[in-house]
Known about the structure:
Layout: H1 2-6, H2 11-53
Amino acid sequence: MHRLAAAGLGTWEAQRQAYARFYAMAQGQAQALAYIDTFWLLAVGAALMFGLSFALERNDPRATGTVSAH
């Protein structure tokens, strides 16, 4: 705030500018952390799906069975 006041802003304007800059920095950090959390969530989900794909039954294309064609 002192730098802003020394740059020619009034005390009230300097204080509001300092709060605005702090808020912008906090929002930027929150967005970066949210992006990282989302990336990790998607990575864990993809790894889980990959692992669960081995639990599926194999498809035998030569097997005979009923086919429902509606």
